Amino acid sequence: MAQAAKKKPGAATTSLIVSARTLAQSHFRTLRLGTPFQPRIDSLARTNDWYNWAGYRAPHSLWDEELEYFAIRSQAALFDISPMTKYRIAGPDAEAFLNRVTLRDVTKLKSGRVHYTAWCDDDGFVLDDGTLFRLSPTRFRLCSQERHLPWLLDSATGFDMTVEEETEAVAGLALQGPTSFAVLCDAGFEGVERLRVFDLAEFPHDHGTIAISRTGFTGDLGYELFVQSGQALSLWDRLMTAGELRGIRAIGYTALNRARLEAGLIVANSDFVTSEHAIRADRLRMPDEIGLGFMIDMEKGHFNGRRAILEARAKRKLRHVLVGLEIEGNIPAEHAIVYYRKNQEVGLVSAAMWSPMAKRNIAIASLARPFGDTVVDDLWVEIYAMRELQYQKLMKRAKVVQRPFIKLDRRTATPPADF
């Protein structure tokens, strides 16, 4: 006590400042949530290049983003998809409920199958897109980019069913690339050769079961595997051991993003803004405006946004179109402005790259109609390229092309080849 009384004036304040500084440093060093595979991913991380995926610490790259991309196209790439939002929807009315809130006809989705779908608000604007897995006649798993639990629960009023988020309980891996099938065979998953594209089946693993679907986000031969979190590390080890001679490598998002662009696939809140995130009214998009019009099944019963979508089609109120572009040169045009006749701004590029597979400079862009729809000539992109420490403005010609930019036969071959 006596010693405490002899402290110099201001000592307590200094102590508080030091404590606050220590606390702040501790806060910034605090890592985000880790997935069940985090111990294995951390041990492989060389670049220390992380980003926030729905509150989880996820890698942009692990060792080399260029070589990680080529692992997808020439070997087998393992990507942790555990942060992807996952909902278990089950009960007697689960099918009717999902048919009510999503665009596609769920009655046509058989057990053991998956389909890509989207869902809209009452005004017909896209809330999100994702994959719907039919696990049994009355059980489904809905996977999405964003979280929608309050909306799903509100929409479930009057239906005899339950909605439960299982993002933390279920771990997921994407195994993609030409040797992915061979890796699964070498790992002992008997019967995986019977899986067609968008098929789903359960296999024994670690005194339990694992769900394997022939799906992915790369446009390549590939699978997605879902397992209870407690069995995650044993699954990782099983795949890495089996795939050692097949060139299996763990990858980050940058490589996956390049592969999905070549496949012409879109990302919510990257290629379009979901209606819950849009602040400005002109950022909202209907399914027809982002290339998802093929999902809409007008022959089924009422679904969210049906009336608004029908009206927009009938009265030609669709204002935008999402297109694939091929751009001259080899400099990626990411986030470049698109012009008509070099002087009229008509849209914006959301994703772009020089494609090693297509040997083309490709991009996805959102354009204001009629550009990209009925007017496809004399389009240009404005690229700012760094040349000797100085940005140089380049105007490059662009033409509208079909997506996907590449189409690989091995993606749909059944059974796949043993590369």
From TrEMBL:
Residues 66-300 form the GCVT N-terminal domain. Its EC number is 2.1.2.10. Gene3D superfamilies: Probable tRNA modification gtpase trme, domain 1. SUPFAM superfamilies: Aminomethyltransferase beta-barrel domain, Folate-binding domain. One of its GO terms (molecular function) is aminomethyltransferase activity. Keywords: Transferase. Residues 322-407 form the Aminomethyltransferase C-terminal domain. It comes from the Bacteria. InterPro entries: GcvT/YgfZ/DmdA, GcvT/YgfZ_C, GcvT_C, GCVT_N, TrmE/GcvT-like. This is Aminomethyltransferase. It comes from Mesorhizobium robiniae. The lineage of its organism: Bacteria, Pseudomonadati, Pseudomonadota, Alphaproteobacteria, Hyphomicrobiales.
